[in-house]
Structure formats: C-alpha cells, structure tokens
Amino acid sequence: MRIPRIFVGTLHSGEAEFDECCQMIADQEDVQASQTVISGKPELEAHNALWDAWNAAKDSFDLFVKVDADTVLVDTQALARIADLFAADADVTGAQILLHDYFTDGPIAGLNAFSPAVTFTPARSRLHSDRVDTNHKTVLRGPAVAELEPIGYHCRYPHAIQAFHFGVHRGLKRQHDVLHRVAEAWRQHQDDARGWALAGALTARSPFMRGGQDYQSRRLQRRFKRLLADTDERQRRVNRYVNELL
Fold first, then answer.
1. Quick check: 197 and 241 in contact, CB under 8 A?
2. pLDDT (tens digit per residue) in 138-172
3. 18 vs 3: CA distance, rounded Å
4. CATH 3.40.30.10 matches 5-154
5. Gap between the Cα atoms of 143 and 193, Å rounded
6. Distance from C-alpha of 5 to C-alpha of 33, rounded to nearest angstrom
C-alpha cells in the first residue's frame, strides 16, 4: 500500500508556535508530508498564494491539509488518521476537524483537509479569505470526525500581539460565542494572553478597525501599541467588556 502524499499548507505571520508546528509536521509517521509555508503576507494575499501553490502541485499529492503556524498537531499520527478518512470513502472530499484552543480553553474550528477533487478560486474577501473551496461531494465534520478531536492545539502560548490579533479577527467576524468563552476562561485564569484577546475584540468594535485585521495593518499596530503603553487602561477596558459579555 502506497504511503499517502500530503501537501501541508501553512500561513505564517510570526506566531509563537511556528517552530513547534513545523517540527511536528516533519515528525509525522506513515505519511509523506511536504510543507509549504507562506510568510509575511496579508491574509487575502497569503491565502491566494497558498491556493495557487496547491493548484500547481495537486497532481503530485493525495491530500491537502491546512495547518496554520499557530497550530501544533496532537501527535505524530495525526496526518495518517486524517488520510485514513479519505482512503475509506472515495466520495470524501473534505474534513473539518476541531482543535483545542487556548483562548477558549475548549474546541474550536481550525483544521481543514481536502482531496485533489476540490477546486479553489481566488479569494476576494479580506475577512473570509478561506471560504473559496468548491466541487465537494462529502465533507466530514462533527460526529463523523469526533474520534480524531482534538487533532491539534491552537495558540498554546501566544505572544501579546498574536492574542490581540485573534481578538480583533474574532470581533470583526462577530463570533460572539467564541468571545463569550474567552471571557469565561479569562475570568477563571486572569491571564495576559486572554486579556489581550479581549482587548482586541473590544477594539474591533471601532469603525476605524474595519479592514484592519491583518498583522501588517497600521491600524492594528497603532491600537496595539497604544494599549501596550497603558496597562491600567487596558485592564479597565477588559474588565468592563467581560462584565458586559457575561
């Protein structure tokens, strides 16, 4: 039986977990994993570069798994278990498998896998640039993949701007359930990383932040530096926001 050939696509913008992410991919067993890293680009351009890289290489691979730089696979058999899902049913063209997320201290969507049958078109939305896969037959999610979850760890030890970016992104996407769970976890642990995530989500309410979700955004950088310089004000804002959420 031939070893599955897996194209692993990774978007990288300085996340703290990047080295561990790459090492775990390199350590995967019973698959032939080849990682392509897209670094330092805004989200829209990064996703389109990744789709282009996959479209150019897909004839040489059995599977495409997107593992971002803030994600560390759970063990050295993770990709083999994903490959088994596709090998068991030729109609399976996609899988969405939950990660364990630091910020919410619980499950979160984050790892997606695709067969070569799936078509990717250029993204146009800067906020939803990962929603461009088409030509699916069967996509496995929920109970169908529950035995594999969590398939990895999301943001195990985020640095401050990474956490702030997470909050801005979730806030702009209006993912209120996620932010509610972040607030619950922050109230229990009172840690800086979750505090920064909540500060980012609160910042995302400003019309000034529309279109400012990229790490490279001057708007995001300015707001982050302003809050970094005034710890007391940031803490007051986070406390008020958590009381509002909960």
1. no
2. 999 999 999 999 999 999 999 999 999 999 999 99
3. 26
4. no
5. 31
6. 6
**Strands 63-66 vs 138-140: parallel, antiparallel or unpaired:** unpaired
Furthest C-alpha separation in the chain: 60
Q: pLDDT value at position 109?
A: 92
Reduce the secondary structure of the chain to three states and give it as a string.
Answer: CCCCEEEEEEEECCCCCHHHHHHHHHCCCCCEEEEEEEECCCHHHHHHHHHHHHHHHHHHCCEEEECCCCEEECCCCHHHHHHHHHHCCCCEEEEEEEEEECCCCEEEEEEEEECCCCEECCCCCCCCCCCCEECCCEEECHHHHHHHCCCEEECCCCCHHHHHHHHHHHHHCCCHHHHHHHHHHHHHHCCHHHHHHHHHHHHCCCHHHCCCCCCCCHHHHHHHHHHHCCHHHHHHHHHHHHHHHC
Task: List the structure tokens of 45.
Answer: 């351009």
User: In DSSP terms, which residues pair with 38 in a beta bridge?
Assistant: 11
Map tokens 């691979």 to a residue: 61
pTM of the shown model: 0.94
The predicted pLDDT at position 192 comes to 96
What does the alpha-carbon distance between residue 76 and residue 130 come to, in Å, rounded to a whole number? 26
Sequence-separated (6 or more) residues with CB below 8 Å from residue 210: 172
Per-residue pLDDT, 52 = 93
Domain ranges of the chain: 5-154, 160-245
Please give the angle made by the CA atoms of 86, 89 and 91, to the nearest 5 degrees.
Answer: 95
Residue ranges in the chain whose pLDDT is less than 70: 1, 127-132
Identify the residue whose tokens are 């979700």.
213
